[in-house]
Amino acid sequence: MKRLTIPGTALSLGLFFDVTFALCALWGLVVPAAWEPMARIWEAVFPGFTWLTPQSFLLGLVEAFLYGWYVALVFVPLFNHFESQRPAEVGAPTMGLPGEAAHHP
What is the DSSP letter of 46? Predict the structure, then answer.
């Protein structure tokens, strides 16, 4: 199996967290009643964040992106370590049409 890389995983997670943060902020603008419980959690998770000023929104994006890097820095080495301990896979299973017999060389 291909090993994960920290930069690729970190960029993916950072952007995923940013998109999620932006969608949640948008949802909070569209449905203000739904935002109140979430706002308390986000204010606890993102230091300095308050609902919702442009500066606070940018701060939330930066902090969400940094959380993605943190997760990647911890997760990728652990994943690669434990994945390297597994025995190698013999081969990928073949997917045939229903009713076809699998061919084995």
Answer: S
In a domain, residue 52? The reply is: yes
Q: How many Cα atoms within 13 Å fall on the side-chain side of residue 11?
A: 4
Report the C-alpha gap between 84 and 26 in whole angstroms.
41
pTM, rounded to two decimals: 0.76
- Averaged pLDDT, groups of 10, the chain, 105 residues long: 92 98 91 84 90 91 98 97 78 59 54
Lookup result for tokens 């000023």: 53
Instruction: Please give the residue range of the domain that contains residue 39.
Output: 6-84
The rounded distance, in Å, linking the Cα atoms of 18 and 14 is 6
